[in-house]
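User: Can you predict the 3D structure for this chain?
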Amino acid sequence: MTPTAEMFIRRMMRFNAAAQAGFRLRVRSGGCSGLAVSFDLATGPEPGEVVWEQAGLRIFLDAESRFLLNGAKVDFQETRSDTGFVITTEGQSPQSCGSGSAFIPVQILTQR
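Assistant: Here is the predicted structure, written as structure tokens:
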């Protein structure tokens, strides 16, 4: 996880200060880049989720997200045209969504 992604998650976590609270990150097949990312603040992990602790952050990941994120770099991008998580794996060339997409712009992250 990059410092930029950590900073975004910390900024979001200010809205949920409970001790067991965390940041739920979900990655699914779909979207214009091949994957779609969603996130939410959560009071605790759901059954089957793993708690990934990174630099004092609690990130909740389900099995599919763990599989898709295995070996990936999680970043966050905030520009005039794109805002969202950017996830890449070594050796993959970046892809992004075109304008007008209903999905959060995400770079390719599958490792199939």
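The first strand starts at residue 22 and ends at 29. Residues 3-89 form a domain with the Hypothetical Protein Aq_1857; Chain: A; fold (CATH 2.60.300.12).
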